[in-house]
Amino acid sequence: MDPTFFRKFRKRHIAEWGIGYLAVAGGTMQVLDILGNRFGWPDEWVRALFALLGVGFLVVLVLAWFHGERGRQQVTGLEVALLAVLAGVAVAAVAILVNAPPARSERPVEPASLARAEAAAADRSIAVLPFVDLSPAHDQEYFSDGVTEEILNTLAQVRGLRVAARTSAFAFKGKDVPVDRIGQELHVAHVLEGSVRKDGNRLRITAQLVNTTSGYQLWTKTYELELGDVFAVQEEIARSITQALRITLSGQASIPPSARTRPEAYDLFFRGLQALNRRTPADLRQAIDYFEQAIALDSLYAQAHAGLAMAEVLLPVFGAAPAREAMPRAREAARAALELDNSLPEAHAALALVEILYDWNWPGAETEFRRTLQSSPSFATGHHWYGLSMMLAAGRADRALEELRTADGLDPLSYIIDADVGQYYVLVRDYERALRQLGAVLETAPDFPEALYWSGYAHLGAGRPADAARAWARVPEMAGLRDSADVATVMAGIADRPRRSAALAVLRRRAAQPHPALVDLAAQLALLGAREDALRLLERAARERDFHILYVRHLAAFDGLRDDPRLRRLLEALPPLEAAPAQPAQPAAAGAR
Fold this sequence. Notes:
This protein is about 60% helix and about 5% strand.
């Protein structure tokens, strides 16, 4: 190169031109990035603009070279050639950046993540955030939550509208989170937020629909009304939202009418709903009491019957009552609800759970799950229960995972669904993936019982009994054991045969007490080699219709018993796997849990 090149470089102030341009371009790129995220510009647009800024840098250098001395400099042929090469490189860079596919993460993308991304792309998606209680005494939170949930459930029945699940939407309760972040975390394009002021029988309900990308209000309204008019207001809010989102209301997509009832029964129903959603044994019993009081005031209140069915069916699931006591009551309540309103997804889901977990009636459960998802395309609990309670128990592991991932994508902040995905991996014996899945839950919720429970089985399957003991010691009533000392004794016996006698004594004592966790205790006994004790408990579990018996086919703890004729006869008496349908009850639908 010409030895005078660098002297010309300094004399024409090339460095000053370049540094000045980079300073301006850097600020411009930050502004473009903010605008692109705010207004949802396509990635290709943003990459093209960045590339043009890069080309602009070369253009500035060329201009400086030719005009740095106010146009008096001489340019050699070699310099012209060099500038031509740089221009060609710039043009190629623009073409590559515009047409390049998005950068791929080194971590493989799970199908659930793809489902979430697809759902986020739809404009017809919404999260109904908990309405704020603005009552004078601030003692109507249960009522404002109930109004929120009623609107959410109404919207969930509108076809073509994706509604974020209650558990995910309510995770933002009491938090000052920007709507754009809520949209990103829940994969929705809109949020409905509002407030309820209740003073005696007088209500003021304010609601506003906000676009999560732009932050603009699409619709807002304030209602002054009597308590008895709240049903019509809920319908009007739902109708206004669907119109604002330009969803055609026709046929099954029409807004379902809200159930009318006495204000006192309505109030009790909301109290029951709040207790039901907490899901502890004590809260489930409290919910049952509220729902029964509401039904006593209005025996035609279908939603109260459906709430009662949900609470009753969950009692044995959460170890709060024997299945032989709670499941028949759940069936009766669900049928009463459906006689009054055959469209209630909660009633169909509760009846489906009774059919599969207690009656062992595969065809009946399939019918009810189909009706659940048909009546409410946005009911993620339907996908969750269908995958875990039916497909997995039926040996349809592929379909079970698909349904669980669908539910997880629809309710991304639900700990129970994420933990049950981990349970799936335990039951199909992919222990390392189970530990990763459950570990992610425990990072956010370190004491979540379901995640701790199944991480214990995952550690055990992976050959780490000490880690299993540490996980199980933190679970209340783990495997039917009363305290961490009992868990430690049992796990010590599994890991160290000389301690087997002490472990067996603990398990036999617990099995003799009221309402033992039969299948869990049988699993521990099987791991200790106590075949006769384990088989007796499994036979008892089958007689008492303990639904956990359906998972004996999958749990590795029972592998040592699979050659025993008694276990084979017991498994043969369970519903045949081939009776389960080969296809899901309904194509994966978006919705709320």
